[in-house]
Specification:
Alpha-Beta Plaits, eight-stranded antiparallel beta barrel, alpha+beta
């Protein structure tokens, strides 16, 4: 499997309309070409920013998708239409860790969450495999004890931006109180301090973002009862 990570800058006040046309127009066309949505999120605090994660079978399938993006007449029309909603986008090709959940596993499992934690680590060259192995053996069980679950762990593919980048996405609670409980459990856990000290030997820096799972057709999203409540609030 391969994954695409897109960072999208959305025109203010058009986000709901953008999500709607993504769900009705682009996603069905992309799925016909083998591009499967894993998650589409609003970024907390930076509300004009969205992040999308897509799954694709292999490099040959990715080549077909790139041909679709570059040459298909429907795609050219979509690009013109989508300029009404997005002003910029940055894409990366990602290779998954062996323990990263596939979309099939996500669809079968309990990965729905109101909040997700998006972590981008810039790892010292030559240390990526060691760092990702430590995430599997140490951080995943540690985070599970706090109430978090790994939803994805990926390395930027060689030749695509910085190949020493490691992305991970974690469930982070159904409500604000849920995240606070997770954070309090983590702060009280001595293992977290030991992890941070060890991780400093592998990574040069790490950046965190909150992702909001508000998109109804996204596999990674808040639970349906919360999503329905949000939609009712928007309707007034």
């Amino acid at each position: 499997m391969l994954y695409l990570h897109e960072t999208l800058t959305i025109v203010p006040w058009t986000e709901d309309e953008f999500w709607h046309v993504m769900g009705t127009d682009y996603v069905p066309q992309a799925e016909k070409k083998g591009l499967r949505l894993v998650g589409l999120f609003k970024v907390g605090i930076r509300y004009s920013e969205n992040i999308a994660i897509w799954e694709v079978d292999d490099w040959a399938a990715l080549d077909r998708i790139r041909d679709f993006h570059d040459k298909d007449p429907w795609m050219k029309t979509w690009n013109l239409e989508s300029l009404r909603y997005r002003t910029d986008w940055v894409g990366r090709v990602l290779e998954p860790a062996s323990f990263s959940p596939t979309l099939a596993k996500i669809n079968k499992g309990d990965y729905k969450s109101t909040f997700y934690l998006h972590c981008l680590a810039r790892v010292t060259p030559g240390k990526v495999s060691e760092y990702m192995n430590a995430i599997k053996k140490e951080l995943v069980p540690m985070a599970k004890s706090w109430g978090m679950q790994l939803a994805g762990c990926y390395q930027t593919a060689a030749g695509e931006a910085d190949s020493d980048e490691v992305f991970s996405i974690w469930t982070a609670g159904d409500m604000i109180a849920g995240w606070h409980a997770i954070r309090d459990a983590a702060r009280k856990d001595p293992a977290l301090k030991r992890w941070e000290a060890k991780a400093g030997a592998w990574r040069q820096d790490v950046a965190y973002k909150f992702l909001l799972g508000l998109v109804a057709f996204s596999p990674l999203r808040m639970k349906d009862e919360f999503l329905q409540a949000v939609q009712l609030m928007k309707k007034g």
